[in-house]
TrEMBL record:
InterPro entries: DnaQ, GIY-YIG_endonuc, GIY-YIG_endonuc_sf, GIY-YIG_UvrC_Cho, Ribonucl_H, RNaseH-like_sf, RNaseH_sf. Residues 197-275 form the GIY-YIG domain. SUPFAM superfamilies: GIY-YIG endonuclease, Ribonuclease H-like. PANTHER family: DNA POLYMERASE III SUBUNIT EPSILON. CDD domains: DEDDh, GIY-YIG_UvrC_Cho. It comes from the Bacteria. Gene3D superfamilies: GIY-YIG endonuclease, Ribonuclease H-like superfamily/Ribonuclease H. The lineage of its organism: Bacteria, Pseudomonadati, Bacteroidota, Sphingobacteriia, Sphingobacteriales. This is GIY-YIG nuclease family protein.
């Protein structure tokens, strides 16, 4: 078994937009170095000042160096049949693989990460960065932040890891099925092992325990592992993976509940790596208010978080269509409902379709009675039901509660609970915020599985 211990210096943090400025490869047989290769590389792009200061490699040093294409064949021949070893291996591997692909070489090797192995075999050290780790283990590290110096130290670290691997951890890690091959450098495999394959919501956390991403899953463990597969080389993905230090989770009875919990948690926690759900907003809603003359007025406006909403819409057209229907069916005044904006009486006054409320001729009580009837009819259009489904175990069921077109909340009840006892059902519900996104999911599910739906009837008194 031969190992290729690799270190590179680059012009930036992700392979898609940055080049390699130096590479060192030490072929190791498990006991000693048997072959080595090291070269500067011309990246054909400017090396940022802060990287020049860190590595000591400036633009002048690489000006006459070979470009990567000139050395790609040599690099591929050294790596393709070896175990690729590096400190934070996925970073180095992503760069080398990307640039080899651009030259027509497909690299697909097993990998070992000396950061991850060191955390397991040399527990309790203050830091596992290469410099501090070498200090703790008395490994000589010369020419720090240069490919040759860092690779040489990593080769010594590898030999020490092999020597201390009494339990065969390296062999287990190299198994194709091992999650160690793909996990981020700061995430312990035990964090994956604790995940069940049930519906739920998972939380990626950074070093300080702050939630940086929330996701939902039908099978928690399977879904989480998909985040770490593939070879994306974008800066966003590389930074995201490096930031993951731990995983938390909540199990749910159904995938639908996981969807809802995810939406609520993203709004609550506002994780920096969740973007799509943050952009969702309810657009428009129908409101009512009493004007200075005592008439009840209906109108559509942009959604207000603290407003009393009669109905909500995804767009203005949908809202105006419903409002015009209500106005026509209950002989309401288009001007009082903001459909017409003239300063005089609405156009329907002349045709007797309006009784003159817009100019104060109709009695307030008579007009408001019809307005309240319209609001009651509107409420009757809004569904109220409980959605009963499987729970997190055989001894319970899940319940989602929808009241007058709004998602009220969800919870779990005993398998032996009387599902027709609506008061008992509602008492088991934990309230959650509602929005159109959540309601659309619930209504779609309810329409697809009507046998799981229990209608709720409310008495409305005018």
């Amino acid at each position: 078994m031969l190992y290729a211990v690799v270190d590179i210096e680059t012009t930036g943090g992700y392979a898609a937009a940055h080049g390699i400025t130096e590479i060192a490869i030490y072929i190791h047989d498990g006991q000693e170095i048997v072959e080595s290769y090291e070269t500067l590389i011309n990246p054909h792009q400017h090396i940022p000042i802060h990287i020049q200061a860190l590595t000591g490699i400036d633009n002048g040093m690489v000006e006459n160096a070979p470009d990567f294409r000139a050395v790609a064949d040599k690099i591929y021949r050294l790596l393709h049949d070896k175990i690729f070893v590096a400190h934070n291996v996925n970073f180095d591997y992503s760069f080398v693989r990307h640039h080899l692909e651009a030259c027509g070489y497909h690299l697909n090797t097993k990998k070992l990460c000396t950061v991850r192995l060191s955390r397991k075999l040399f527990t309790g050290l203050p830091s596992y960065s290469l410099g501090k780790l070498c200090t703790s283990l008395s490994i000589p590290l010369n020419n720090r932040h240069r490919a040759g110096g860092d690779a040489a130290a990593t080769a010594l670290l590898l030999a020490m890891l092999i020597e201390n691997d009494a339990k065969g951890l390296i062999k287990d890690t190299l198994k194709r099925a091992s999650a160690e091959q793909t996990l981020p450098p700061n995430l312990q495999k035990s964090e994956i092992d604790k995940l069940p394959n049930t519906p739920g919501v998972y939380y990626f956390k950074d070093q300080k325990g702050k939630v940086i991403y929330v996701g939902k899953a039908k099978q928690l463990k399977k879904r989480v592992c998909t985040h770490f597969t593939g070879h994306s080389i974008s800066m966003q993905r590389q930074n995201f993976l490096r930031a993951i230090h731990s995983i938390d989770f909540q199990t749910c009875g159904t995938e639908l509940m996981a969807f809802i919990l995810e939406a609520a948690e993203i709004k609550k926690l506002w994780p920096e790596n969740n973007r799509a759900m943050k952009r969702f907003e309810q657009k428009y809603s129908l409101y009512s208010f009493e004007d200075q003359n005592g008439y009840i007025r209906l109108g559509i406006d942009k959604y207000r978080k603290n407003g009393t909403v009669l109905y909500s819409f995804n767009n203005l057209l949908e809202g105006h269509q419903l409002l015009r229907t209500i106005v026509a069916e209950h002989s309401l005044c288009e001007k009082l409902c903001f459909i017409q904006t003239s300063k005089t009486a609405c156009t329907h006054y002349a045709t007797s379709e309006c009784n003159g409320a817009c100019i104060g001729e109709e009695n307030v009580d008579d007009y408001n009675y019809r307005a309240l009837q319209a609001m009651e009819a509107l409420q009757n259009l809004l569904p109220s039901f409980a959605l009963i489904d499987q729970g997190r175990s055989e001894d319970e069921k899940s319940c989602l509660w929808v009241e007058k077109g709004k998602f009220y909340g969800m919870g779990y009840i005993s398998e032996y609970c009387d599902i027709n006892d609506l008061e008992t059902l509602k008492s088991a519900i934990t309230p959650y915020p509602s929005n159109d996104y959540i309601m659309n999911m619930i209504l779609t599910h309810s329409n697809q599985y009507p046998q799981k739906t229990i209608p709720i009837v409310f008495e409305t008194v005018i």
